[in-house]
Recover the amino acids of this structure.
């Protein structure tokens, strides 16, 4: 655990006691802070009390003594309106921060701190988890003590303190960036920007500005790596490429760059300050198929080569990357039917990246819909044999699909899996795919996308006990 030593003997409040909130309580207490905490659920309050926090509703906190409010990233900071606890903190001049800010202060925000471990920070709309994990995989193969967490895996304060050859690889959501003004990454990666989380940011422009904030905080001696294949991220690159800040490296898939890292015809090329050199064939990376994963690989290459230095080591690590659960994850093949878990696809843009990889798809979609629904996926509808709609979005999605794709409103995931598996098995396609790629958040029926994906896995595994029916 990373101790919050700069908060010793201070009164600090923690609001929201999920994964990052509980880690903050433990880190603060270990460092000698006086901690107050609250969560609307009773079980997290019990755990925080056992960790040494004083439990009280935020309205009863001694605001005149509080120095900091550590806010869960899930609590609205600005939109659709600030949570009342945020309003109270600002009215009493109490700083509002997150666990990432505690981490930044603990390791030393100044890159000149002797022995400071480097930080690689990854953000973006899609692909950030795979890119984060791939960066960590490459650097581990290169001999670093890699600590990976943040919005993926462990909460950042649960990571080990710096040691010899330590390097932190952190995934950051837009919510976490908003709460970490003192984080100074050595390398920042922006995967892409598409419309997402507008309910929490008010507009696409504000959402993009929050993502760009991380790049602006990057050490001037470091570098930023930006996917330039969407218009918004490309404009952010143009700004940073000419502002005298850290070195900016563009990354593209399908377009040759005069300088940067790019993928063309499945080949990964490095053109950073030199003539383009072919690094590897991405067909060698079995778990990184599709243009979106080619972008992830190119971003990871650009972010790690300053540390790994040997492009052959990096290429080997990319080829051996095992992939991540819930992201284009092969679950099983029953008879001729392949089952793929892409539960992480929580918006249409992310679902498109899965749909484009297959033909003869029996698609399970739905959940808590995001702005725009699935209208943007219309060009991919011919790949879909039938759709099985679940969750709150089922009725709205059915209107989009009506007359274009066969569908049924299954409502629940267990019903969808049963019927989709049967329909796929008896269809005339030689290699049908049952694909869970919801294009929605999970919060209407599941705790998170991980629970949704694990439920899919269990349901598919349960099918193994049933006799396989071949098509007649």
């Amino acid at each position: 655990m990373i101790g919050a030593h700069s908060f010793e003997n201070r009164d600090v409040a923690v609001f929201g006691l999920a994964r990052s909130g509980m880690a903050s309580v433990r880190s603060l207490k270990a460092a000698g802070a006086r901690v107050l905490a609250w969560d609307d659920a009773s079980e997290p309050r019990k755990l925080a009390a056992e960790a040494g926090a004083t439990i009280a509703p935020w309205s009863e906190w001694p605001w005149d003594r509080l120095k900091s409010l550590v806010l869960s990233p899930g609590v609205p900071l600005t939109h659709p309106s600030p949570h009342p606890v945020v309003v109270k903190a600002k009215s009493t001049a109490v700083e509002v921060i997150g666990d990432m800010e505690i981490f930044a202060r603990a390791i030393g925000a100044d890159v000149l701190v002797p022995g400071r471990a480097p930080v690689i920070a990854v953000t973006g709309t899609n692909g950030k988890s795979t890119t984060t994990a791939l960066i960590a995989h490459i650097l581990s193969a290169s001999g670093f003590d890699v600590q990976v967490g943040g919005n993926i895996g462990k909460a950042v304060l649960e990571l080990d303190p710096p040691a010899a050859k330590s390097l932190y690889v952190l995934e950051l959501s837009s919510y976490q960036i908003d709460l970490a003004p003192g984080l100074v990454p050595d390398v920042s990666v922006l995967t892409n920007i598409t419309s997402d989380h507008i309910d929490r940011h008010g507009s696409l422009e504000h959402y993009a500005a929050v993502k760009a904030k991380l790049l602006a905080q990057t050490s001037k001696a470091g570098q930023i790596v930006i996917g330039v294949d969407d218009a918004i991220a490309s404009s952010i690159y143009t700004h940073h490429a000419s502002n005298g800040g850290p070195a900016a490296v563009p990354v593209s898939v399908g377009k040759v760059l005069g300088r940067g890292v790019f993928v063309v015809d499945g080949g990964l090329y490095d053109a950073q300050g030199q003539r383009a050199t072919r690094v590897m064939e991405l067909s060698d990376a079995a778990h990184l198929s599709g243009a979106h994963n080619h972008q992830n690989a190119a971003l990871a290459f650009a972010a790690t080569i300053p540390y790994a230095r040997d492009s052959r080591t990096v290429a080997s690590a990319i080829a051996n990357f095992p992939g991540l659960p819930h992201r284009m994850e092969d679950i099983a093949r029953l008879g001729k039917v392949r089952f793929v878990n892409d539960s992480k696809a929580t918006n249409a843009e992310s679902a498109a990246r899965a749909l484009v990889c297959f033909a003869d798809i029996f698609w399970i979609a739905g959940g808590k819909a995001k702005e725009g629904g699935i209208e943007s996926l219309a060009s991919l509808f011919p790949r879909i044999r039938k759709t099985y709609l679940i969750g709150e979005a089922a009725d709205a999605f059915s209107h989009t699909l009506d007359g274009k794709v066969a569908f049924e409103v299954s409502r629940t995931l267990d019903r969808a899996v049963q019927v989709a598996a049967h329909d796929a098995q008896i269809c005339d396609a030689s290699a049908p795919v049952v694909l869970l790629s919801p294009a929605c958040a999970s919060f209407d029926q599941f705790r998170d996308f991980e629970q949704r994906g694990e439920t899919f896995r269990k349901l598919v595994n349960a099918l193994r006990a049933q006799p396989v029916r071949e098509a007649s």
